[in-house]
Design a protein that fits this description.
The structure is a single chain. This protein is an alpha/beta fold. Among the domains are: 1-39 and 656-845, Isoleucyl-tRNA Synthetase, Domain 1; 212-446, Alpha-Beta Complex (Isoleucyl-tRNA Synthetase, domain 2), CATH 3.90.740; 856-946, Class I aminoacyl-tRNA synthetases (RS) (hypothetical protein PF0899 fold, 2-Layer Sandwich). It has 30 helices and 32 strands. Strands 7, 8, 9, 10, 11, 12, 13, 14, 15 and 16 form a 10-stranded mixed sheet that branches. A hairpin with a 4-residue loop joins strand 5 and strand 6 (199-200). Helix 6 runs antiparallel to helix 15, helix 21 (677-685) packs across helix 22 and helix 23 runs parallel beside helix 25 (796-816). The longest helix has 30 residues, at 762-791. The radius of gyration is 39 Å and the shape is elongated. The chain binds one RNA strand through strand 8, strand 15, helix 10, helix 14 and helix 22.
Length: 977
Amino acid sequence: MCAETPDYKDTLNLPKTDFPMRAGLPKREPDWLARWEKIGIYDRLREKTGRTPFTLHDGPPYANGHLHIGHALNKILKDMVVRSQQMMGKDARYIPGWDCHGLPIEWKIEEQYRTNGKNKDEVNVVDFRQECRKFADGWVDIQREEFKRLGITGKWENPYLTMDFRSERIIAEEFMKFLMNGTLYQGSKPVMWSPVEKTALAEAEVEYHNKESFTIWVKFKVVGTGDATLDSAKVVIWTTTPWTIPSNKAVVYGKDISYGLYEVIGRPEECWATIGERFILADNLASDVMTKARLDETMYRRLCDITQEDLEKIQLTHPLHGTEGANGEWDDIRDFRAADFVTDTEGTGFVHCAPSHGMDEFELYRDLGMLEQVITYNVMEDGTLREDMPFFGGKAILRSKINKKNKNNPWEGDANTAIMSKLAEVDGLLARGVIKHSYPHSWRSKAPVIYRNTPQWFAAIDKPVNDQRDNYGKTIRERALRSIDDMVTWTPQTGRNRLYSMIEARPDWVLSRQRAWGVPLTCFTKKGALPTDDDFLLRNEEVNARVAKAFEAEGADAWYHEGAKERFLDGIVDPDDYTQVFDILDVWFDSGSTHAFVLRDREDGSDDGMADLYLEGTDQHRGWFHSSMLQSCGTRGHAPYRGVLTHGFTLDEKGMKMSKSLGNTVAPDEVVNQYGADILRLWVAQSDYTADLRIGPEILKGVADSYRRLRNTMRFMLGSLADYSQADKTDIHDMPELEQWVLHRLAELDEKVRTGFNAYDFQGVFQAIFNFATVDLSSFYFDIRKDVLYCDGDTPERRAARTVLDILFHRLTTWLAPVLVFTMEEVWLERYPGDESSVHLTDIPNTPKGWRNDELAQKWVQIRRARRTITAALEVERTAKTIGASLEAAPIAYVSDPDLFSALSSVPLADLCITSDLNLTQDTPPAEAFTLDDVKGIAVQFAKAEGEKCERCWKILPDVGTHAHPGTCNRCSDALG
RNA sequence: AGAUCUAUAGUUCAGUUGGUUAGAACAUACGCCUGAUAAGUGUAAGGUCGAUAGUUCAAGUCUAUCUAGAUCUACCA
């Protein structure tokens, strides 16, 4: 700077703001949260009237443990939906909820008992349930605070809990609808059963240990083929559970396995095979089986193939068939058919089926509709065989107490050996042995468990519901499938197929669990009646009403209090004629009923009891989407939701699952403490949630970078608008074209933003806004307008620019507020401070129709292309060190295209290119003029700007120094007054 | 083991009914500016479109197989 000219910097209108470049989000976010709580934002929004309601129904997380990143993703997405819908003019309600019942909590309490040396069985059920309730309550409070910290808005002080007394009442009432409409029935299925504890166990309560088991090869005689070769043969099966042999009902083979007929032609002394005996075996396993039967390869020969046609002809008899003293117990012909779970890698290639004691077999015969013929009730609760069973009645599969003398098999009872002896006696055994294998044991008693057919309660999926709500079909399945296609919008579309095929294929819904913490199946069965009898279940509205009333007042504990049965039945039926059911409802029934006690029954629910959206991870196709659909189809005839959005899972940076052992986890509170919740939210917004989402240190760093860029753009606007007033407000028609073009872009974007928000495409919306902010604003519009904003006095150009900045401010803050809830509030308060002020009370402003100007936009595409050529030409000189700043240049643009020429001559091209001057001509360009390959019709000849540098605006102009203020140009001198 | 889904620069994403040289942004490198300054701005480099085979005049796009990852089932006689 020359010594004699004054420093004009203070005379400029430089951006002025206290808005910090660095956000300091982790420290400052809690203050904004406190503010919102004080203002009561959520309730304040509810006071706005005349808005169309939008209901996002919250899928309840399970109330145990701290939040992980998946919870954060889910709730942030929900929050962005709620906030964007609200700001687009809806009344967007959000009632957060928690799932409180169920095994994991029960389990935690049991664990506490164990460490304190208490025994669960000695604790009163009601006391136990109270402890579970307390535990859930504690975690609800913790999770609520963790969710709030992420900036999630909602009715936090009055959420819904599945364990609220009212919820428990309604869950029971919903269950009783199934009771009354006849879809509830008692059936049975094999479950993991601990004979020692006489209880069913869940998969989570089972641990696998090595156990020694007997292993036997058993002969089943072939009969009734009419083929002498086959009829003389025996099918051999292998099992490690001899105790299931009395319950055998069938044998199955594999469709793709090659079988052969083998004849014994020699034998050692100790052997259960006789010479001439013929066995059908899988070829891959024949030598293995023969070895176990002590036959070496010289002692048997393969006679022929056994084809699938042969197998189809075969029928079998049980080895105990016709045994004296068996009273015909095993005399029925055994079923024999193909099944796809049979392999020829282990055993014999044939699987013995006792469908009461194995899942594969049970499912096979369930799907065949033959359960009644194959289900047995041979094993009692304590693991003993049925008292009246021939030979083995009362024998125990497992001992009730451990026998430490039997070191190898301390729990072994007397049933297996008795059965093996009898089989050997009737020539039913080919071989036996012992093996060590991994076997399920009870987590509590450490004793082995068995699969045991157990009575369970089911909801029939294919039975007409008979409730006059048949618009979508008569049965639950029909209604569900029809709803999926006719009623529900799926985001992404693939979710539809997933649920459809699951519901299409699913069996009846097992509603009962043998547990303590949940809502009981509130029903009674008639003593002496069979499950198939019409009056087996007590169906009485008066009884139901009593139950509901009691639950409303006392919660589901009422079911467990002393004298509950008499309380509910006295005076209606004779309590002594009925048995009270003590099973617990599947927790998916609880959460499947949330639509009833939240959407239908709460004042702030929805008008028609339906949700506009359910939004959960893809795992909920089998979970909440599924159970809610079934429950609702059973009770109200159709889906409870109009829309379903599913998101993927969170993975680490390499796309691998997160796990503590790999050390690749990202905890939400860590992100919040390091970067702030807004960064986590921005990560959600810029990710494609329809697939799995990756997160890790590098990705978060990238997100924080984007955030900073955006933050500075906002900061620039704040600074330039510092003293903006209504006097600046300029009509669009009085604005330069550049400003009109910005408004056009805003009109375009507004549509994109609204369509995107309505399609829940936050990624698309954010990307569009972010691109606009960096490409159109920061590097183009702002860059150009800095000159006018800084240097002009109160000119129409400056007023127009500031009008546009003000408009931009309102658009950008409201568009981004659903994502960057904290930062946009911070930006908003910078201009609109006040105790009651908040961007979150504002709607996205409407866009005046006149802003859209496609013709102008077309023209400006041309202009920007020409500009690119000019700036590129300057870049060459910059690299050559001819110039530094672009204001040192005054290039000549040779434009041959007449349209382009007229377009360029209609705008202040030098300003747009940030040069001090620019000559536009239609002359033929000199050969050395600069061109870009992809821009036709313009060539640029570089020239340095002539004159002195204005000490105020830094433009180089010929008239500098000839005005009132020394060292200034005409404009600046005027501005200085 | 089965069902479903995903795969494009270092990162996050575009890529129309198959049709020019696969596009942005961020990050990177090298510049410019020093009046958005722990900021702004320009230029460049960066891709066998997970792999292979096929259909086609033409494949990131359609088909098949494989690989990796994810979710849900099944983990057994």
